[in-house]
Write a structure and sequence with these properties.
about 25% helix; Rubrerythrin, domain 2; about 70 residues; 3 strands; Lysine biosynthesis protein LysW; LysW; single chain; 3-stranded antiparallel β-sheet; alpha+beta
Length: about 70
């Protein structure tokens, strides 16, 4: 069973009910995680890399416009 990196509580995730891209949250602390992979289960904290992704996307748009 997966545990929350923030508060170390068990995350109640049914592997047969989640898909890549789903967002799950810790019932104890409320931290949200995106399911990156199902087998094996891999989670990424929502919002952790959003700024970096936005910057990369903007740079790609600018290159396409030129």
């Amino acid at each position: 069973m997966a545990s929350c990196p923030e508060c170390e509580s068990d995350l109640d995730i049914e592997l047969d009910e989640v898909e890549e891209g789903d967002v799950v949250s810790c019932e104890e602390c409320g931290t949200e995680y995106e399911v990156v992979a199902v087998d094996p289960l891999e989670l990424s904290r929502v919002g952790e890399d959003d700024e970096e992704d936005d910057e990369d996307y903007t740079e790609e748009e600018e290159e396409e416009e030129e």
